[in-house]
Amino acid sequence: MNIYVxxxxxxxxxxxxxxxxxxxxxxTSARVVMDRETGRSRGFGFVEMASAEAGDxxxxxxxxxxxxxxxxxxxxxxxxxDGGGRRPPxxxxxxx
Length: 96
Fold this sequence. Notes:
four-stranded antiparallel β-sheet, globular, two-stranded antiparallel ribbon
């Protein structure tokens, strides 16, 4: 199960997320999304849990709770829309 974790402290790192969710079950991956230009956290991340039951328990227990001074927003991640929602790179644009 893929879980969205929002309102993270900017000091939160991948290992912090993994430790937080590990008490609910096996964590397959934990990643804080970082800004490419500044290298700072963007304040949200994603955790992949091995089972849906563990993920549901983590969502239920952690949503709204304080972690590193911030009240977390935790829910099941929604799939990305087609195209990924990315903007074209800055600079020279191809004309169509």
